[in-house]
What we know:
alpha/beta, five-stranded mixed sheet, 4 helices, 5 strands
Amino acid sequence: MKTLKQLTExxxxxxxxxxxTDEENEMFQKQAEEEGFLGLDGHTRPxxxxxxxxxxxxxxxxxxxxxxxxxxxxxxxKENGYPVIDYGKYARxxxxxxxxxxxx
Length: 104
């Protein structure tokens, strides 16, 4: 399985991650925790986050969840150069894991 750290290691900006299902969400939270990511406060473990569809991960190994309204207003992140990743596709090793249209 590809690592989340691989996504962030050459990226100076936040990478947005979309988890379409509860199963993907649980997998993402566990993977992030196993790789050593922590909440923006530097203490909260990813599995302590509420289930959420949208996350942001950073090269400094911090991450946060993004509520629906914030995601909606920031969904054009790709147009500003921020990658948006379909976690399910990424976790399955599919090549087309970068989202090219707006997802809410």
